[in-house]
Design goal:
- There is one protein chain.
- By secondary structure, the chain is of the alpha/beta class.
- The protein has three domains: 4-63, no CATH class; 81-281, P-loop containing nucleotide triphosphate hydrolases (Rossmann fold); 307-375, no CATH class.
- Helix content is 42%, strand content 11%.
- The chain has helices spanning 4-13, 25-28, 42-49, 81-93, 107-117, 123-135, 157-161, 171-174, 190-193, 197-202, 244-251, 256-260, 273-277, 288-306, 315-325, 329-338, 343-359, 367-375; strands at residues 18-21, 36-39, 97-100, 148-149, 162-163, 168-169, 179-182, 204-208, 213-217, 221-226, 264-267.
- The strands form four sheets. It has a five-stranded parallel sheet.
- Strand 5 (162-163) and strand 6 (168-169) form a beta hairpin.
- Helix 4 (81-93) crosses helix 5 (107-117), helix 4 packs across helix 17 (343-359) and helix 17 packs across helix 18 (367-375).
- The longest helix is centred in the last third of the chain and has 19 residues, at 288-306.
- The chain is globular.
């Protein structure tokens, strides 16, 4: 039965209990207590209606698996300290992030490592995520973890946003309260990518068709990765077979308005040859536990201060942060002129700066926080 969790919430609001097939037992474990009962057959349902409740059973909440057994990703990445720092800041404030670098530099591992940095879902968030998977007819092993979705670049608009003849959630809705990873970003159809512009701002995907209109919550964190040019393995910083026009056409597949909605842009360069030669003897980092604690504390500080993460900071609250920051006017004017910032990207830099300050436990944004946030918009997209 698809959508059992949404049905259970609706029936509980009316003071009733949903009787679902035993096959819905996994998702029923995250349902609100008393909202669902499981039945093996129709006779059990008729017995329940006649008052013989023992023929149905309650979900086994104790059997829910909470911890993932996936192999660690973040600690296994050698080098790329700048990208790891950008990933930490993005995780702290829920910011969208774009990584640009040649193949084999660890972009995919970094994206998957983000899931290790994110705090566990709250009870409310867990129910929201489980409801989206239930509507799609899918189950999860680890309902306490933020979801991680990585659709192939051949994904169509209904696969990414939802829809179809019978409405179903897309990958954006399945990544709600988690991560939507788009690898090889320029290989997605530009028309499909541009459909993400509104959900990135509103956190809701509205699908309108001739016979229905439906909306799905999709407050996800977008992590995207791309090569700097289409040459693939031939792409090197000192020698590349791509002509400038080819690079520009490749990068232009990502529209300016979509780039403007991505808070953090970071370069992921090739590892130094000396580091690669000594890879076997190079110790891996082991800072995941410490970083997770910092990120959890920063997110707690944000919710206590403003009721949301910094990525969703309201304009009024952001204006107050600007007033208390006491940054030199010359710095702000130079930043706007040097990077040709739009109003949206300028505000995003302030939100990222607030996340940097939260990681350090600072009450106000300092010039160093703003400069670090500004460095995350310093990629040169000119031909």
């Amino acid at each position: 039965m698809q959508g059992a969790l949404a049905c259970a919430a609706a029936t509980q609001a009316q003071g009733r209990t949903l009787v679902a097939p035993a096959a819905n037992g996994v998702e029923a474990r995250v349902a609100p207590p008393g909202s669902m009962r499981l039945a093996d057959d129709l006779r059990s349902v008729t017995d329940l209606l006649e008052g013989l409740e023992e023929t149905t059973r309650l979900p086994d909440h104790a059997g829910l698996r909470e911890q993932s057994v996936a192999a660690p990703q973040f600690d296994a990445i050698i080098g790329q300290q700048a990208a790891k720092r950008a990933l930490t800041v993005a995780a702290a404030g829920g910011h969208h992030l774009l990584m640009v670098g040649p193949p084999g530099t660890g972009k995919t591992s970094l994206a998957r490592g983000l899931a290790e940095l994110l705090p566990a879902l709250t009870e409310e968030e867990r129910l929201e995520v489980a409801a989206a998977f239930s509507a799609a007819g899918l189950n999860r092993d680890h309902y306490g973890e933020p979801p991680f979705r990585d659709p192939h670049h051949s994904a169509t608009a209904p696969a990414l946003l939802g829809g179809g003849q019978v409405p179903h959630p897309g990958e954006a809705a399945l990544a709600h309260r988690g991560v939507l990873f788009l690898d090889e970003l320029p290989h997605f159809k530009p028309s499909v990518l541009n459909l993400l512009r509104e959900p990135l701002e509103s956190g809701v995907a509205v699908i309108s068709r001739a016979n229905y209109t439906v909306s799905y919550p999709c407050r996800f964190q977008l992590i995207a990765a791309m090569n700097p040019c289409p040459a693939g393995l031939s792409c090197r910083a000192d020698s590349c077979r791509c002509a400038p026009g080819e690079k520009q056409r490749y990068q232009n597949r990502i529209s300016g308005p979509l780039l403007d909605r991505i808070d953090v842009h970071v370069s992921v360069p090739e590892l130094p040859r000396q580091l690669l030669a000594n890879l076997a003897s190079t110790p891996a980092d082991s800072a995941v536990a410490e970083l997770r604690q910092q990120i959890t504390a920063a997110r707690k500080r944000q919710r206590e201060r403003q009721g949301c993460l910094n990525v969703a900071l309201s304009s009024e609250r952001l204006r107050r942060e600007m007033q208390t920051a006491d940054l030199p006017d010359a710095l702000l004017e130079q930043a706007i002129k040097r990077f040709a910032l739009s109003a949206r990207s300028y505000h995003k830099i302030w939100r990222v700066a607030r996340s940097v300050a939260d990681l350090e436990g600072a009450d106000a944004i300092a010039p160093a926080h703003f400069k670090e946030a500004l460095s995350f918009r310093a990629l040169d997209w000119a031909p």
